[in-house]
Structure formats: C-alpha cells, structure tokens
Write a structure and sequence with these properties.
It holds the Pfam family OB_HELZ2. GO terms for molecular function: 3'-5'-RNA exonuclease activity; RNA binding. It comes from Dreissena polymorpha (Zebra mussel). This is RNB domain-containing protein. The protein is of the alpha+beta class and about 1200 residues long. It has 32 helices and 50 strands. An eight-stranded mixed sheet has the order 36-44-50-47-48-49-46-45. Helix 2 packs across helix 30 and helix 15 crosses helix 17. The longest helix has about 35 residues. The protein is globular and about 105 Å long. The N and C termini lie close together (about 10 Å).
Length: about 1200
Amino acid sequence: MTFWQLTNFVSAKARNPSFPTPEAAKEALDVELCIRNHKETNIHVSHVNLQNIAVMPVNLGKPQGEEGMIYHTEIVRNKRYDGSDTSSFSGESSSDDDYEAVRNPEDSILLDSSGADETNIDSDDAISLDKYETDVYEHADDKTDFYEQSKCLHKDEIPINFHEEELWVKNGLQLKPGFVNQFKPKKHFDHVYEDCENETELLEKLNSNPAKYVRCIIHHDGCHNAICNPVDKLSEVPTIHISGRSKIGRTFNEDEVLVEVLSRNKTSEEVNGQVLGVFRRNRYQGIKHPVFICTVDENGSHLLRPMCKTVPKIKISTSYLRSDYNRPIFTVYDYNERLGVLTKSTDVKVSSKEHLCVFLVVFITWSSTFTYPLGRIVKILPWGNTVARGLTILNMQHEVHSIYSKETIDQVNDLQLSEGLDEPSTEKQQNRMDCTLLDAFTIDPPGAEDLDDALSLECREDELHVGVHISDVTEYVMKDDAYDNDAKQRLLTFYPKIDRPRHMLPEPISTRKCSLLEGKRRLTLSVFYCFDKHGKRNQINTQDIVRPTVIKSRKQFSYSQAQSIIKKKESEHEITKIEKDLKIMFKIACVLRKQRLGNAMHASQAVFNDRGAEDNEHEAHILVEEFMILTNITVGKMLYKQFPECVPVRYQPPPSDENMHEFLRKNGVFIDVVANLQDRCIGGNIRGLHTLLAMDNQSVTGKHVTVPKNMWQAIKDHRIPKQMLMCDYMLPIQHVTLQDWNFIQERAGYICCNGHKSDADDCKHYHLDAFPYVHFTSPIRRFIDIVIHRLVHAFLNDEPCPYTSTEIKSICNQLCSKEKQAKEYSKNCQLLKRALELQTQPQMLQCYVEDVSTSGIIFCTPSLKNVTKTDRTLTFNRLEMGHKPELMQAETETETCVRATWRKRLYDCKGTAFKYPKEALKKACLPLNPNKNVILIPLATWAHMIKSALNGHNADFEKKLLFAAAQHSSLISGFDDVSTESVDLKDLKPCTKFSFDFKRGQVINIQMLAGPLRGIMVPKPMCLKLTDTICFCLLHTEDPVFYLSNYSSVAISKSFRNVTQYVHEWLPLILMESAASTVGCTNDNFCINNVNINFTSGAIGKFALSTKHCDERNIELSGIQRDESIKGDEEAYTRDSADVIKSYDWICIKALYPLDSSTSHNGDYWIAHGTITGVQKKSLESDKIIVSFKLTARSGTVPGELSSGNSKYSIEVLKKGNVDG
C-alpha cells in the first residue's frame, strides 16, 4: 500500500461513516508493523509478509465486542537475552515486561515490602519532563565565590542540596546492605562473567604462573575494548589487549586487575587476554555505590549510557518502566541518607526521540549473571542547552570540585586573624631578598586573578639581568595541613573559560594572599638570568641563582596589552620604561626560541578572516612561554642533582614506531612544508624546507600546496603580511599534516625519576626535547608545582627531601589522571560555548578534508579545534548519492581520492542555463572543479617562496608569487557549476549526472550549527556547499522524521471508538514512515533555484511557477489538478480544489543571507523545512501555478534580512515515498 493509497483510505473513511474492508485494514496493519520495526531497530523495513500477521482476522466491517469499537492485532516485540530479537503477534495481551522477566535475570529480582520499587505505572499519572524540571531543578545562579559558598554551607546558611548532585557524583551514595540484597536474582542463571571475587584465589593464580597471569591496570577504550598495562614495569609481558564485554569483566577504568594471557600473535606481537578478577578499584576506591551521569541508550530506554565512555551501560529494569511508545516513563527515586535506601518519588515522561535530559543514576549491584550493572535514577536534569545547564553537567561529568572542607575554611579564618589576607607579615619577609624596587610585571588573560608568575628586567652596563618571579605558595600551604589536603584532592585548578575557575586553593589564598597583584608586596621564589645585549646567556657565578624574594608588581598586563606594546614602534609613540623592558625581554625570548626550535620559531598562529589577519597575541605568549620553559629546565637540573630519586619530572614518550611509520607514509614530503615541524628530527632525519629543496624534481613532481583564494588575494594585495604563509592552521595540506602529527603524540605526564642513567631517555620530554623538565612556575593552580617548591626550599636550606619516592609516585599517578580530566573539561567547556554561538547563528566555515574513504569524509577547520572526530564526520549516505562512491587514484597525486557521483534534477525558475563547451554536452558525467576555492602551487615553487619570505628577499618573493599564480591556471579542471537546464530545450535531459572528487587536503564549505548529543550541545554540520547552486542539506537526510514531520507521541490503541480516534493515532505514524522513505528517493525529488517567495506571515508563504516551464521539465507536484480534469466553471474549480487539488509534498528551502556588512550572516545560509499545503492555478486562463506552504515549527519564521522580497530562494521538493517501500 502506498502512502497515497493509505491517505486516501483515511480521508475516505473520514467522509464515509461505513467501515473499510478487512483487506484495507490488513494493509494498514502491515504498515504499522513496518513503522514499529523501523522505530525499534532503526532499520528501514521495505517489506513484511502479511502471513506473519496473526490468524485472527481484523474485521472492521463487522465490529466485534462493544458497538463502534475497532480492533486490531497487538504487536509484541521481544528481545532475547543473547542479544537477538523476535517479533510475535497475538490476540492476547502479553506485555514486553512479562516476557523480559522470563528472559533476563536482571528482571528476576525478589523485592520485599520496603516500597523500594513500584511496578504498576500508568502513563497518565506520570508528569512531563518540563514540569519535573520546573519543580526540582534550576538552582539560583550564585555569583559568590566557592570559598564563600563553602563557608555558608558549613554554617548551614544554605541548603545542602545546593550542591548535592556534585557531592553525589564525587562521593557516591551510602546504601544499606539489606536494601541492596533485594536486587539479587531469585532464580539461578548462567554466569555472563567468569571473574573471581576472592583475592586469595587471584593471588594463587598470579604466583603459580607469572607468564600467564599478570597483574595490570586496565584502561577501557569504550565499553567493549580495553588495554591492560602490567603493574610491574619489568614484566616480560607487554600491553595486553582485551576485546569483548565478557572478557573485560565487571571492571571500571583504571582498576587493578588480574589478567590471563590467552594468545600471542608472533607477527604483530599483540597479546590478547581476559580479566579474571579485580584486586583494587582506583577510580571509585572506597565507593560501593557511585553515581553516574547518563543519557538514554539509543537501542532501548531500559538502558542508560554513562557519559563516561569507559563505564558500561546501566540497566534500568523494564519492570519499572512503562512506555507509551515515544515517551518512555522513568521512575525517579529519593535518596534517604539516614536510612540508606531509595524510595520512589516521581514518574517522569521523556521524549524518546530527543532525550533532552541527563540522568543521575546510582550503581546498585552487578552480579556475575547480569550483562550490565543495575541502577536507579536519583535525579533527572535538563540537557545542556545553556551555559549554566551545560556547565552543571560538565562539572559533574568531570568531577570538578567546588566545596572546600571545613578544616580549610577554619584555616583561612585563622590566617585572616593572624596576619590578614593582604600583604605578608614583616616576619615572613625576613631572610628574603628584597626585590620590591624591580619593575616587575605580570602578563595574564584578561580578568585573571590567580597571578603566579612575574617578570623583571634590570640593565647593568652591557648586561641584561632577567628575573622570573614565582609566587611562593608553600609559605602558607604547609605539607599535610588543611590547604594541602584539599589541594591533594583537587590537584589542579579547572578553567572552564566561560565561567569562573574552580580553584585548587581557596580564593582568599589563590586570588589574594598569594596572587602577584599590582602594587602589592608578595613572597616569591625568583630565578635570575644574565644575558648580553644580543640575547646570549651569560652565567652568574657559574650557575643560575634561585632565591626566596619579596617583590611588588608594578603593572598587570593582559596578553592583548602586551601584544600591543611588542608591536608598538618607539619612533611613533612614547615608550615607558616598563614597556621598554617588555620589548627587550621579547627580543631575548626570540633568541631563546630560535635556539630551541630553529626555523619552527617562524610558525605563525595568526588567524585570517574577512577582516584580515589577526595575530592572536602570539608574540605575547612567546615572551611568557620561553622564560617559563627556561625556568622549569633550570630548576629541574638543580633538583635532579640533589634529589635524583625523588624529583617528579614532566615527561612525554616519543610516538610509537608504528605510528611514526604511518605518519611518514601518509604525509611524505608534505612534512617538509609544515612550519611547526621545521628543523625537527622526525623518523631519524631533520625535516624542513632544506630537505625539500635538496630533492630532485621527480620526487616533487605532481605535488601541490593549496592556498585559499581569499587569503592568496590578500597577500598579493599586501593586506596581510607574507608571514601568513607560515600559518599551518590556515593552509589545508599543512593543517591536516600537523593534525596527524599531533594525533600520534603520546600523552605527556608526570613520573618520578629513579636516579639511573636511563632517566635521560625514560623521563625525557619528547616535544620539548628536554630532561629533566619540571613544573615549577604555576604553584597556585597545580599541586605538582607546590611539591617542586618544597623540594627547592629543601635544596636552598640544605634539608632532606620532604617526600619519599613512594609519595612522589602516588602524586604523579593521581595527577596524570586528573590532568587529563582538566584538559577534557576545558576543551568541552569551550566546545559548549562555540556550540551555543552556532545554535543562535549557524556559520559557513571553510573546512579541510582530513581523511576520506568510501563511507565518508572527516573534516577539520581552524575555528573548531576542539570538536571530536565523530562530530566532524560526514557520511556519504547523507548526501543522497545515486551511485556508490568510487575509490580511485588521483591523476596528479600519489594519494588516493574518492569520487562521489549524483543524478539530480537541478532547475532554474526562469530557465537560465549555463553555457557549457560543446564537448561537455557529450559527457555522460560532468566533473565539478574540486579546486574552485583554492590556488594550486607546485611544491618546489612553494618552498622557494617561503625561503624568500624568511630571508627577507621581498623582490624575489613577489616574482615567485606571480609565477605561482600563472602555474595555477594550467592546473584547473572541471566545471564551477552544473544545471539540468539547457540553452536549447531539445538538449534538455531528465537529470544531470555530475561528480566531485574528495581527497585529503580538499577545501570544502560546510555550514555548522549545534544540536544535542548525549545530553549536551555540540556543533554539527548543517549543509555542504559544493557550488553556488548545489548545496546539500544535511538535516533532513540525517533525521527526516524530525525535520519534515514529527515523531508520534500517541500510542496505538487496541480498539477504536470512532474514525476520528483512528485517524488521530494512525496518521502520525504514517507520516513518520513516509518521511523516512522520502530520503533516498533522488529520482523523484527536484530542486528549483532563484525562486521568489512571498511570505504572508513568518511561517506561511507561497511562490509561483510557470505551467509551461513545469511541463517542459516534467515537474510534477503531488495533487496538481490537470487541465483536462477541470470540468465546469471556475466556481466549481474553486469549490472542488479544497478536496481534490492538494499536495502533501515536503520542501527544503535554502536562501543565502545578503552580503551586507550590516549583518553578521555574510555567506551563511538560512535553511527551513515545510509542507506544501496547496497547489492551484491563479485562474483558468492563467499560466501560473500558485504553491502554498507552511514551515514546520522547528524551522521557525523567515528572518528579517530575507523578508524584503528581493531574496532568491532554492526550493527542493521532497516527494513523499511509499510507506511499504
């Protein structure tokens, strides 16, 4: 049965009180089966055998039972415990929950009368999510700092539930054993996991065969894969790989486990194994019932998926959930801390499509017979669609601390009473070098309050004395005091960058007492250097001097202020002494950077956009960065000589041989043009322009660098400096190559030195090429820096090391994990900010193809550095291709590319056609120009251009610039645009076949917006623009039901009292299936460009088409009244049009915002979806067809910039497909 047949069936029934035939009803039920299967499995069911329907007939012609009732077969969908599923039909009532209770041991739980669970939930009794949010959520946005909040909390001046969610996630819940025992299976089932819980047995196995049984730390890579690193670094067993949920066992990330070695691959040297048991939990140590932040699993609302990918799904038993199909009902439980139990609180309806909420789920138990752990929901929070809500989720997800302990509050109070929170006491300033007369200054982000480093310059004859002054936090934070214990828990300050920081130390210490504020005396540890006037470093008494000091900062600069001073010309502006000091120190920093990086120091971080080049404060960051790196190396060398076995160094291992080999194979000679990799040893060779220039022509023939046209033109016009050619992030090939390089880098961490000769290799920082390298310069925000400061004081006072090597190792291990957490938190916060910007204003971005395969592309762009690879993936099935993508060899490149081919009906409202060369008309497929937006420059020419720019040979650079432009014109191939229109109507084809080649480094234009993903807002692609007239909407191809129709929230009744009820419940499901089948029907869909639309209101509009134009191009709109079927006068035509002349097609409307400097939408598209509501002739004599439509609620209304009447629209008509395929 087609959509039109079923629609006519429903419409006829609405007009005719008689019931339809049993055959028609049976076909309708066939559609229902397709729809339900599609909904539950997310797979389009093209055909279902009607013989699978229950034998009991559905006779709508002869009502059964109560008069006027319509009965239909009930579908019972079952999922087996082994993961498969079955579908059965029965005339009897048999619920999913009854079936699941038999199949799943998780549901076979004997409950006592404690009232912990309720099984009978009526959907009418459940409240909506919006009502639940209004009732229980949205804390007041308190602007007081966390110290003050902690202070009030410990005084009971604010309710404990103000931060209860964060406390739950941090500490878990305390549940009584008697309550937990209720959840044991009442029947015996086979074990899913064969792991052992007896530690004695595990130790016996470990000691019996150390080669087979290995003690490891497990690191989960998702839910079904893990790697295990032996605890014993001298173990002969390398990293062990585990694949499969059952082999991973009931483990959490970073657990200490016993692993059995199952196999060894002699070729790849890969070792596979399985977990036998857990010795110790590291992540949730001492917490029996942790609380996880979860979202609904896509495969079933009885499973909740933790946002942490290393935690398995959590089962919410189906016996506690009743679903009215697309609005499952979740039971929320109250936690009674005094009794240690959970009691039912509220039933909440949640949209199964959008899942726009997150759940706090407490882990109850995990029996060896349970595939997944069991849990209960203790709170539902709204999803992160605002800064406040997003931060709430991220703070909990990354376990960001907020409340300080009562002991810390008391210690701050004691300090305030003893010497105040401003300048240090006279006693504390004794035995310190007085450096308050130095013109010290700080450079930090705007608004920063935790200032822990300052710089100073003193000119003495021909010598320049530089001081690096670091806040001496250890003068106030003593080992094992309250501050120290709190800091050991936090380890780092978390910077969201869209909200106030979560400080490691309480604000009175971190932003006042220890912060190097302007005009305030502060205690510091200072490192002094001496340079000559050329920036060459001299020694002071054969070694650098580290001393306890007192300073007074003269000026607090922001990075932008420091950047302006560096760029300021002395001849044009009056320079103050401190500004002159800053400029001199920048020159010294450049010398240090040249010595450290070679030609890579010229790599630019500037950003190019329509406003020109923005330097991004790069030089100001260089000034601070170079002196901090120098200081960390200096202190590291000093401490390693004194405490070789107890120094926590910052280290980074080199990339693996396998990753390095793949990087070299994949990128080849393009490595030599990456500015950030100049003069770097890669794969045993020093790479750079000199390597490329020394190659013969054959090695670089056919290889090109691409430069965006707008950037190239700006350089030619001298609107931006030629140094922009050294900005890797703005150049496609360089960007993706550098992205690959960063991807293969191992994560940096902290490690305790052993005092052996091997430390120089084992503890070296690969990227900085330094050993020993420590973190000394940020003690206010990093706990490891406090540890280093204590070692420095021990060195200066000739005291023993204040830490044992065991303590240092423990701190290093904890900090490695916490640092990863902090970086992910900061990255996700910035991503949230970017997503919220895109939510209100989608933006067309110039993107680069990072990788390509026959399934799709992965793209990257400088403005979306923190977006995950998943959200930067564009699959080809969203582009509605009529052909399978072809993997082929590029004509002029050694790398491969993928050719995508389409058949599209692309028309112009006025019939305007492109003038193709005669030979093009003979081609079966028209290739699009893949390099329309870039300039192609041969690799050798590029190398000479960059060399001239670096050496300051401007005339030579200009010559090579013109030469490169001339070479580009000879490399152009393909058409800039295509159309189905033809100058001669005799040559008009039914459709146009065209292709586009995607390859690595390709420049493509993608418009980004934002949408929900697992409870939080993230950027996602909105449309792909190939040419001026070809723009693929990625919204309705990703989720056609959501954007074209609506997900039904009405359950199908077992019987119907009247036709109105039948139509009300069935029609939304029919529309859902029709929308799903619309995507992919590329032969029926067509696009008309340059259409004038008259919006009669914000969401209602109409446009006119010529009947002659439509007939010549075979353009048909569903429901168009043909001339020959019009009988009678115009009055009859008008009278019948409401019932006969209707169209139910969907449309996708695109319009380019006007290129007006007054709008912020320059170059962006407005995209909306709607339903055609009517098609009729203006009059019987008229040649015009008037098409009326209404935008969907999700599309909103037409923007003011496009409502003037001068805008041109592109209308893609999406024909409704057959609901049964």
